[in-house]
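Dear H.,

Thanks for agreeing to be a second pair of eyes. The structure we're designing against is below in token form, covering all 504 positions.
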């Protein structure tokens, strides 16, 4: 009988891609996607370890699935990804009903491991080597890259896809668990990346986002010739049928002039650069071991602004990092007030076992202070974001239509291909735009006249056609700051676009 899978994904785009690949592999073995976890033969959680909160969410989900497992002992429960690598046996100690613990470097084994468990082979833990105490080569080998065939059914939308440029990270910022759970930085060959893009475009993909922990550190050496990210962008830009190319996340020190020029000169590359600053003070950046000063960050930003005056630059910030004083926090506030970020993802520091900060620096900023600083920084960013968005009122923007707006998704009615719904899409500079239009436009590029702006989104009307269809007072904005870059929660199957399909 056909087996059915339910998979829940939290964390970043890497995890979304990993889930897509796991689903693709299992579907090739005859598995189907369940429509509810209660109907599934296997329930998987693809996990994140970047902050404690992300782990707590999974441990409470495991508590809930325990009840299901008690009713149906044959149910296979799997914990995949970063938390599996970080907690290993601890997961089975805390939740002995878990059958599979599989790190990000072992995901290719999932089909075999599930088959073993179903055949009565008992629980399995498969993880990579720790980053201490082994040769780099051996550690790197234990994190196998996993990028076989793709599966559009599992992507947030079928016309957008992620492609990995490299796995792992070697920067070892003092607060960050990623180098420990995702292993050493390993680049994929440019030919492999371009071939994957070509295949995705042939399947109808219009937008590709290259992903790497530090995507702009990409280097591939092939017999003396080095390919950089800018070289990859040149090759991808030449693909017929592809509309847009994005890349995340950038490391400030590796924002070189060749890359900035590629973004300026290649028509398909989006004018959107996520370059996390993390903090505004040199002392804190030093404690964080980020490897640059704020002066160097501003110099980089100056080069970006000069070449790309319209580009959207976004950042991440950590508030309440070890020893952060009021005066140090003020420097971050100043940076947000003056640097003109389109938006910032703001996080309260969460100590992560295994990191340098966890071992050497006390987590001494009280929780209520972290909360207050988070609020203040978000408030400052909101003012900057609103002012930035208001500059778009009265302009015409090309938007890639992504699907129903949150409002209409919640209504859960399918208006059909010609039915008008409230849709959402993004500009070349990654701004969210909300507008009313027929749902058959999902997956297409459409010109929108921008009529109004909120801090986190723009709204408008389809240019030349529907201009009078929407009364101004019906314009709505998302009221939540964007969190989708890191706080993705995807329940299987595709949840964000419902039954909407792009036109063939
Ligand atoms: N280079 C990666 C970073 C992953 S972590 C990428 O963006 O793809 C994403 C963000 O989470 C970081 O930029 C940082 O701002 C935040 N972060 C990382 N570790 C954290 C911690 N221990 N506590 C709070 N925030 C953290
Ligand atoms: Fe983390 Fe710093 Fe790498 S934030 S992913 S260690 S660049």
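And this is the sequence the design step returned. I haven't edited it by hand at all.
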């Amino acid at each position: 009988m056909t087996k059915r899978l339910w998979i829940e994904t939290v964390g970043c785009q890497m995890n979304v891609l990993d889930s897509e690949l796991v689903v693709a592999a299992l579907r090739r073995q005859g598995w189907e996607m369940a429509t509810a976890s209660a109907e599934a033969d296997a329930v998987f959680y693809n996990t994140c370890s970047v902050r404690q909160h992300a782990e707590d969410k999974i441990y409470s989900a495991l508590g809930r699935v325990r009840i299901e497992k008690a009713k149906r002992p044959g149910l296979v429960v799997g914990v995949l990804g970063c938390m599996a690598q970080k907690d290993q046996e601890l997961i089975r100690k805390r939740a002995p009903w878990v059958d599979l613990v599989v790190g990000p470097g072992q995901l290719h084994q999932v089909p075999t491991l599930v088959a073993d468990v179903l055949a009565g082979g008992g629980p399995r833990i498969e993880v990579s080597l720790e980053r201490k105490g082994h040769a780099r080569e051996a550690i790197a080998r234990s994190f196998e890259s996993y990028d076989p065939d793709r599966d559009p059914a599992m992507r947030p939308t079928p016309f957008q896809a992620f492609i990995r440029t490299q796995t792992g990270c070697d920067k070892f910022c003092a607060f960050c668990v990623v180098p420990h759970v995702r292993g050493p930085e390993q680049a994929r060959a440019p030919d492999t990346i371009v071939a994957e893009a070509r295949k995705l475009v042939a399947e109808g993909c219009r937008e590709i986002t290259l992903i790497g922990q530090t995507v702009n550190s990409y280097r591939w050496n092939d017999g003396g010739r080095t390919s950089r990210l800018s070289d990859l962008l040149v090759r991808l830009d030449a693909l017929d049928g592809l509309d847009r190319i994005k890349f995340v996340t950038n490391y400030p020190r590796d924002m070189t002039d060749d890359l900035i020029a590629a973004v300026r000169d290649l028509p398909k590359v989006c004018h959107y650069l996520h370059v996390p600053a993390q903090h505004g003070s040199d002392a804190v950046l030093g404690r964080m071991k980020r490897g640059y000063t704020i002066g160097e960050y501003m110099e980089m930003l100056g080069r970006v602004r000069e070449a790309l005056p319209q580009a959207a630059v976004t950042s991440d910030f950590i508030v309440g990092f070890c020893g952060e004083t009021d005066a140090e926090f003020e420097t971050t506030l100043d940076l947000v007030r003056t640097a003109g970020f389109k938006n910032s993802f703001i996080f309260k520091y969460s100590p992560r076992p295994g990191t340098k900060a966890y071992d050497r620096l006390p987590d001494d900023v009280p929780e209520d202070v972290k909360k207050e600083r988070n609020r203040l920084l978000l408030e400052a960013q909101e003012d900057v974001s609103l002012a930035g968005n208001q500059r778009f009122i009265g302009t015409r923007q090309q938007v890639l239509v992504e699907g129903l707006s949150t409002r209409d998704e919640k209504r859960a009615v399918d208006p059909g291909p010609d039915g008008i719904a409230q849709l959402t899409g993004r500009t070349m500079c990654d701004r969210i735009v909300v507008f009313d239009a027929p749902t058959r436009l999902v997956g297409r590029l459409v010109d929108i006249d921008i009529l109004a702006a909120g801090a986190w989104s723009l709204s408008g009307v389809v240019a030349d056609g529907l201009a009078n269809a929407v009364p101004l007072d019906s314009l709505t904005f998302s009221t939540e700051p964007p969190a989708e870059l890191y706080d993705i929660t995807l329940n299987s199957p595709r949840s964000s676009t419902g039954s909407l399909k792009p036109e063939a």
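Two observations from my side: The radius of gyration is 23 Å. The pocket of FE3-S4 cluster (ligand 2) is lined by residues 169, 171-173, 176, 178-179, 213-214, 251 (CB under 6 Å).

Warmly,
E.
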